[in-house]
Amino acid sequence: MMQYFVSRRAGRQERLTVIDPRAGPPKSTGRILMPVVDAAWEDWLATNAKRGCTVDSMIDSMVGAGFDSLSASAAVRRAVSATLGHPATAGGATQTQAQAQAGPGSEARLVKAAPTDYQYDAPPVASGNLIRAYDRDVKVLMRSERPQVIVFGDVLSPEECAELIERSRHRLKRSTTVNPETGQEDVIRNRTSEGIFFQRGEDAFIERIDQRIASLMNWPVENGEGLQILHYNTSGEYRPHFDYFPPDQPGSAVHTARGGQRVATLVVYLNDVEAGGETIFPEVGLSVAGRQGGAVYFRYLNGLRQLDPLTLHGGAPVLAGDKWIMTKWMREGPYS
Q: What DSSP state is assigned to residue 303?
């Protein structure tokens, strides 16, 4: 029987002895099994957020001190939100401070937050616990209203998952992400995966998958980007990010010119991961551990064209084995 595990992360209870947090990241004075974000760490986080240090540099410092990357990311984002009054954005600076005031290797970029008054209207996905998606019955395993997240089972058969992996295995290239300034596709350390794209409807097999996904998401097939296959080896991860194109970033115009803004995402799991690799939503403490053939859907553009900041998400590090997923992004209009 196919299963999904959905959990909300609890706070850590262990204590950490620290010295002089203002001089740099707090240091342990003994053997520490699991550090915690105590008062000294909170002071350090607030101080560096005010200085304009980048989100990534702060996360890296915490990881170097013994935190796991997910706990570090969540702590940094909470601190930035509490200190500066806006959500942190992966890869960007926390405020517009001069480069000389920022931490080593930081980039003084300002990314405007998505609207905080996002209004949740009815999602396009059909109601009920079983949805007929073109040629297949798909199970609904979980629904979340804020953000709008739906977990599905049986989107693909095991044979379809295996074929997508085999078709992709010898065509993989290092994954890229959108540069917010130029709109170009850059390789960055926040995304440690390999991937390929299938053109929409490029053959009968891919066309059938495209039709099924469009039916499940209840969105026109011509509004979908090509299917993306991603592979993560052990330790591979994708730090928290948004799938939509921030409207205040110059590089976004390059992408929204082809079909408009992204509306929703479907991530389909092509294999069972031995350990780790969950899809995480750190703003709401939600973690989805997928199973082969299942998927997680999330929607971030409503009828008012507001963008939902709670859809910040990432791929947790793969702790054992490897991870294969397929991603489909839907646009406002036809995508070419």
A: T
- More confidently predicted of 6 and 196: 196
Q: How far apart are CA 147 and CA 134, in angstroms?
A: 26
Q: What are the φ and ψ backbone dihedral angles of 44, each rounded to 5 degrees?
A: -65, -45
What CATH topology corresponds to 130-331? Jelly Rolls (2.60.120)
Pairing of strands 238-241, 313-315: antiparallel
Rounded CA separation 323/236 (Å) = 9
In 3D, which of 323, 3, 326, 267 has the Cα closest to residue 153? 3
Measuring CA to CA, which residue among 65, 147, 145 is closest to residue 114?
A: 147
What is the Cα gyration radius of the chain?
20
Q: Which two tokens stand for residue 173?
A: 């290239």
- For residue 175, what are the contacts with CB-CB under 8 A and spacing of at least 6? 187, 191, 193, 194, 195, 230
- The per-residue pLDDT for range 213-264, each reduced to its tens digit, is 999 999 999 999 999 999 999 999 999 999 999 988 888 999 999 999 999 9
Crossing angle for the helix pair 39-51 and 55-64, nearest 10 degrees? 150
Burial of 84 per CB tally in 10 Å (0-12, 13-18, 19+): middle
* Cβ pair 216, 152 in contact under 8 A: yes
**Alpha carbons 79 and 81: distance in angstroms, whole number:** 5
Single pTM value for the model = 0.65
Average pLDDT, the chain: 79
| DSSP symbols for 39-71 | HHHHHHHHHHHHHT-BHHHHHHHHHHTT--HHH
**SS3 state of residue 143:** strand
Alpha-carbon span 304 to 120, nearest angstrom: 10
Q: How far is residue 274's CA from residue 3's CA, in Å, rounded to a whole number?
A: 14
For 166, other C-beta atoms within 10 Å of its C-beta total 9
CA proximity to 181, closest of 245, 119, 123: 245
Q: Are 59 and 80 in contact (CB under 8 A)?
A: no
Q: Where are the domains of the chain?
A: 7-101, 130-331
